[in-house]
Predict the structure.
Amino acid sequence: MEATLVLIKPDGLKRSLTGNILTRLSETKLEIAGARVVRVGRELAEKHYGHLREKPFFEELIRYIMGEFHDRLKVLALVYYGEDAIPKVRELAGGTNPEEADSVSIRGAYGRVLTSGLFENVIHCSANGEEAEREIKLWFKPEDIIFDVYETETVTRESVKEVVWKEKKE
Ligand code: UDP
Ligand code: MG
């Protein structure tokens, strides 16, 4: 059993592909173990794609995942959990380049290549176990995932500020 991170990227959200993509992913019979709508700041974007920092398309990729090209400043982040979750989701997602991806895969069906060369491929999914762990820990807190996917510990922090719902006055 393993977990994998899926992001529905801003182009997927803008083009109302969420339903289609989730339906396709349900073919895997994997379980959704966590879900968040996330506003992606530069820090999170650069951490997520840190291993691609040296690539010529890095800056454009960061702006893409932050939603700057699709006036949707958010992504939908999901954790899928189950047997062989990582290869099962990768297979359904299809190859990185949407023009070369299997035409029935999610990226093959919905992705496109910009004139700049950037692949707008509607979905991210972790490539291997090490990447899944790094990414899930980046995007989710332990309490936001319904299974114990990785080891946790309890720490006590003094004077940590937290935003809570304002109490209503009677
Ligand atoms: N990407 C791109 N051009 C490339 C390689 C990657 O535009 O030549 C983008 C594409 O959106 C891809 C993301 O960078 O999904 C991350 O690249 P990676 O090699 O990790 O591919 P993935 O794991 O997403 O298939
Ligand atoms: Mg990757």
